Predict the structure.
Amino acid sequence: DQQVKQNSPSLSVQEGRISILNCDYTNSMFDYFLWYKKYPAEGPTFLISISSIKDKNEDGRFTVFLNKSAKHLSLHIVPSQPGDSAVYFCAATGAQKLVFGQGTRLTINP
Amino acid sequence: DGGITQSPKYLFRKEGQNVTLSCEQNLNHDAMYWYRQDPGQGLRLIYYSQIVNDFQKGDIAEGYSVSREKKESFPLTVTSAQKNPTAFYLCASSIKGIGYNEQFFGPGTRLTVL
């Protein structure tokens, strides 16, 4: 039972444009969501999070949007840079363990 | 520098052998976790520990064992009972127990069973 789904295994974006990564969840008990970035052969690093009491959280070039009614969140990266090329995982929790999506590989093309 | 260390980065073992993966943190975090990552899949929780001398099974604990004798250390043993042990193993920690806490990850250990 995949409670957190990232339906796009990969995404390719031109440098300077907007990257939009999507994540859907099924468990209505989830109320805290996180995005992690992962380079090959390294551990994930925390990027940005959002609580269910908000619908948007912004940190520099990164913005996370939460649509509770649709059980959907998205990560926007503007402008996209070559160093953003990585695998991005969304994760969700409802005061229990973190549940991770499968990840989306983002490639930024020059 | 505070952080999480995992050693070794690459590990090769023969089928049927137990192997122990090391995880150490100097962040003074109470909680520690072990995840497994397989190609095309997310991180799956193997075991977690919210306090010294206590740990709980995650989603895929079969064939694994852990101990938490010290706050800083949370070693994972991959036993011969684990049917498909070849994977990338990640250790993480957080200030408090699972929930609304950012988890910090180590660099990972890639285990290959021959």
Q: What stands out?
A: Residues 6 and 102 of chain A are 6 Å apart (CA to CA).
